[in-house]
Backbone:
């Protein structure tokens, strides 16, 4: 692609190509390789066969001192930072370096009541938009998991050499803010959008401190 990225995003903005595609997708899940329900079923079975016969295997991981259990594609490898280890009771990062996929969770020390989650997420969106003015907000939604609300937003941002898609989320857990995100190349959104939501919807959270 020879045109500059700013021209590329300007063209997307003016022609509303991306918006039109996503408006259609919002009412039609055919753009996804699998539905969220199919991804959830695959996670419960330990594997998911895609339309192209690719087989995705899942691993079940206990996180945050065994207080959170999540099923993740086994292509996501937990990261261990040499010389500066991440506190496993507060943060978790997993990557698929070859495909350019990053999944992360962080338990903040900031107090956050359940009824404040959506407002808190809106503040994150506003702060991120100021830091990354090229970010394009796509959608916002709330998931209900174990009687708790996980507030999510989807966005597109520039990361050379490809635009990236991000699903960011936040919830109140043990009275404090937990934030996370899954980032992947825009071209991989048809697979990783349903996978990400399935990961969140199948997670098991301990509410005991």
Residues:
């Amino acid at each position: 692609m020879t045109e500059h990225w700013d021209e590329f995003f300007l063209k997307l903005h003016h022609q509303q190509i991306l918006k039109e595609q996503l408006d259609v997708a919002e009412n039609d899940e055919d753009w996804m390789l699998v539905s969220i329900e199919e991804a959830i079923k695959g996670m419960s079975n330990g594997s998911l066969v895609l339309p192209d016969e690719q087989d995705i295997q899942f691993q079940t991981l206990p996180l945050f001192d065994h207080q959170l259990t999540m099923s993740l594609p086994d292509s996501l490898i937990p990261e261990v930072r040499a010389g500066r280890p991440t506190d496993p009771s507060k943060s978790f990062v997993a990557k698929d370096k070859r495909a350019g996929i990053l999944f992360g969770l962080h338990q903040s020390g900031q107090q956050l009541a359940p009824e404040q989650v959506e407002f808190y997420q809106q503040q994150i969106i506003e702060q991120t938009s100021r830091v990354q003015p090229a970010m394009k907000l796509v959608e916002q939604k709330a998931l209900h998991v174990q009687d708790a609300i996980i507030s999510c937003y989807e966005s597109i941002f520039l990361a050379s050499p490809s635009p990236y898609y991000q699903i960011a989320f936040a919830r109140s857990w043990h009275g404090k803010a937990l934030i996370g995100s899954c980032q992947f190349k825009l071209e991989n959104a048809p697979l990783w959008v349903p996978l990400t939501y399935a990961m969140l919807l199948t997670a098991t959270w301990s509410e005991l401190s």
